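Anyone able to model this chain together with adenosine-5'-triphosphate?
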Amino acid sequence: MTAKIRSIASAAGHEAQLDLAPRPAHGKLTITEVGKIYDPQGAAVVAVSDCSMDIAAGDFLAIVGPSGCGKSTLVNIIAGFDNLSSGEILLDDAPLATTEQAPRPGSDRVVVFQNGALFPWKSVLDNVMYGPLVQEVMTHREAKRKALDLLRRCGGLDRVAEAYPAQLSSGMQRRVEIVRALMNDPKVLLLDEPFRAMDTVSKTTMHEHLLEMYHVCRKTIVFITHDLEEAIFLADRVVVMTSRPGTIKTTLDVTLPRPRTAALLASEDFRALKAKLSAAVHEEAKRAFERGEREQA
Ligand SMILES: Nc1ncnc2c1ncn2[C@@H]1O[C@H](COP(=O)(O)OP(=O)(O)OP(=O)(O)O)[C@@H](O)[C@H]1O
Ligand SMILES: [Mg+2]
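re: yes, here you go
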């Protein structure tokens, strides 16, 4: 039977294929009782404590929680930028980070932050080709073919392949960064507040584009945000972390159907999920605030 291809007119004005790619075979994350203490011999900041979650390969998970609750710490440990103090993280059932084994950055996990990281002196195409060329995992011809193909499939960005970052809007630059992150075919894509600095309208467009990329090149995604609507609109599950030391307060399953379009934002189901999530997050934000007040007193 031929699969029915659904499409909508995207914000960029082109027809986007939105059937979700099949679940990938790799990219399962098992996070068990992870703790992180910064400066254990000195100030001993307990950033994360007893944090456990399972993320299936190809799932889109969002993490929300009060400022300073350890969201970036967790992402940095998964990325291999920092070690953990207790617990373990497995990637596809193999140890990624344990107390005996410091995690290492690898091309199987890639992070996109809120601050732009494109080389301003390189064209879009050269930026996207950069990683695999420098790591010598592709020939120039292979990298170019793959970069142009990915750019095209991710919202028709091949149209700006010869442009330089400064010639693009910040939203477009962020999309190119995500395409660049996909070049090495990572198992896990870690996004730490990638759209934080954007206005609401640009963000909505970015969400549409990100979901399009997710539908085309399905990866395990861990998405950190403070924006509750963003978390619900994008993710399959939203994890709420407690105030520091961050642990899992609750997990919300987002049962909204895919493909998701902006019309969902006005639906009753969406509003109900948002009310539930807001209540959990605000309780923790209040707790963090009150603790801050006490610590300063
Ligand atoms: N290198 C470090 N040394 C000491 N403490 C740190 C370090 N990095 C982070 N922290 C502390 O660990 C806690 C968690 O920080 P983290 O950046 O992970 O929080 P976050 O949830 O990402 O916050 P935000 O929402 O503001 O980005 C904070 O109290 C922070 O001050
Ligand atoms: Mg952070």
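The radius of gyration is 20 Å.
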